Amino acid sequence: MKQSMTFIPTLREVPADAEIKSHQLLLRAGFMRQNASGLYSYLPLAQRVLSNIQQIVREEMDNAGAAELLMPALQQSELWEESGRWYTYGPELMRMRDRHERQFALGATHEEVITSLVRDEVKSYKRLPLTLYQIQTKFRDEKRPRFGLLRGREFIMKDAYSFHSSSESLDEIYDGLFKAYSNIFTRCQLNFRAVIADSGAMGGKDTHEFMVLSEVGEDTIAYSDSSAFAANVEMAPVIAGSPGTDEQSEELERVHTPQQKTIEEVAEFLKVTKEKLIKSVLFKADDKFILVLVRGDHEVNDIKLKNHYNASAVEIASPEETAKVLGVPTGYIGPVNMKGEAVILADQALKGLVNGICGANEEGYHYTGVDLSRDAKIDSFSDLRFIQEGDASPDGEGVIKFAKGIEVGHIFKLGTRYSEAMNASYLDENGRSQPMIMGCYGIGVSRTLAAIVEEHHDDKGIVWPAEVAPYDLHLLSANAKNAEQAELSEKLYKELRSKGFDVLYDDRQERAGVKFADSDLIGLPLRITVGKRAGEGIVEIKVRRTGESFECSVEELPLKAADLIGK
C-alpha cells in the first residue's frame, strides 16, 4: 500500500487524555481515533493488526475443533428473562426498545442467544460435543471508560461456547481450548499467565483468566516465584496454618479502649502487633448475616465468603444493619458474648489463637486474653482471607509474589447454569432428556491489540511482533524528488509485493526526518530506505526491534528480509 493512498494521521504530541502507552501510541501512530468516551474508530493500520490477530484466533480455534458462526448483536429481552439475567446483569447492559415497544439489548455477551440456537436444533447426544465461536463487536455501558482499548464501551471479542453430554467431554474441550489460548497469546508474543479466576456474573465454576503481565493492568495476580502456579488474587487459596505458639492462655479481660475503633488504633493503644487482634466484620450473604473473623493483619476475601455459602451476592453490612443486628457500633463488635443473632465464621489462621484481642460488643471496650476455642462459638473455620505477598505458594513450591495483569482471555466451565434455565436438553442413549453441559471461552481481540502495544514499544513508538504487524516492511525513499531513488523505490515496491511481502511504501513528498520519525512511530518490523546509493543498487535495512541497520544489495534484499522477519 502506498502511504499517500491510505489514511495514517500521525501526531507529534501526546494527547492530553491518554494515560497509558498503548492509548498514546495508537493515537499518535494513526491507528485509531476516539469518537466518544469509550468508542473508537479503527483506522487502516489498526484494522490490519486486528485482522492478523483474528487470523491467529481462527487458526487455533479451528485446530481445536470449533466452528465459526455469527450471531446478532441485537438480542431480544425474552431470552435474557429466560436465563434470569435481564434484571440482574446490571447497568452495563445497554437496553433499548424498538418501534413496537419490544425490549432489546446490545450484546454484552451471547450465552442466551447461543443456548437458544442450539436447543432448537440439537436434540440427540449423537450431535454432542459441539463447539461454536464468533468474532463480533460487544457493547457494555462502562461507568468509567479508560485506558483506551483496555476498557471501552464497544470492543471486539471472540466468544466460543461448547455443549456436552458429560463432564468428561467438557473437561476435554476445556483443556483443548486452554492450549489453544496459550498458543494464541504465545503467537502474539505476549508475556502472559493463565490464572485461576472467579466466574463473576457469568456463573459456573473452574475458570481461568489469561493475564498479560503489565503495570497498567487492573487486576492483581498472585504467582509463585518457583513454579507455574498463578491465580487472580481473590481466588488464590491460602495454605492452612495456625499461630503455633507455646503461649499459656490468659484469662479473658474486658479493657477500656475509648475512641479506639480501627485495628491500627487498638494495636497502638494496647501496645501489641496487629497479628494479635481479631478483626470482626459483619457480612450479608443473600439474606443471611455472618460475622467473619480474620487476623488483624489480614483482609476478608468476599469472593471466598460468597463461594463458601454459594451465595448470589455478598456485601459488608451497613453501620445501620450492624447496629440493628448486633446492637453495637462498628469497631467494637466481636465473637465473645455476642449480643445479636449471626453465624460466626473464622479464617483458618485464627485456629489455635490464644491471648487474642477483639471487640467486647460494647462501645469503648475490647477483650484481651481471648481464646476462641474457649470464649466463642465458632460455626466453622475456613480459608476466608486474601493471600499476601510472602505467603507460601498453595502448590507448596516457593512463595507468593504479586503482579498487575491485563485480562485478555477468560474460559469458564458453565455446567448447566444456562441450559437448565432455558430448557436446552438432549436425549441420551436411553432416550431420557438431560440438560446440556456448557463451557464458555472469550478473548478480547481489541484488548489484545492494546496489550501487545503495552508490551512492545520503546521511546520512539510501537515495535510490532512480525506475526501481527500491519505490514512486513516499511519502504521509503529518503528523497522522493530524486528520480533515481523514486524509480528504485517503485521497482522494489512491486518486486517485494510479488514475492509475498506486505509493504507499506512511504511515497509522500515529505522530508526524510519526518518519514523516519513516522516509521519508528508506526513500528513495522523492518524499514527499507532507498537513499544516496540507489544508483549502485544498495539500500539500507533497519531492524525496528533492535535498531540494527546495515546496507544490502537489491538482489539480496528479498531473501534477507524474509530471513529477518521469519517469513
UniProtKB/TrEMBL annotation:
It catalyses: tRNA(Pro) + L-proline + ATP = L-prolyl-tRNA(Pro) + AMP + diphosphate. This is Proline--tRNA ligase. It is an enzyme of class 6 (ligase). Consists of three domains: the N-terminal catalytic domain, the editing domain and the C-terminal anticodon-binding domain. Residues 48-465 form the Aminoacyl-transfer RNA synthetases class-II family profile domain. It comes from the Bacteria. Pfam families: HGTP_anticodon, tRNA-synt_2b, tRNA_edit.
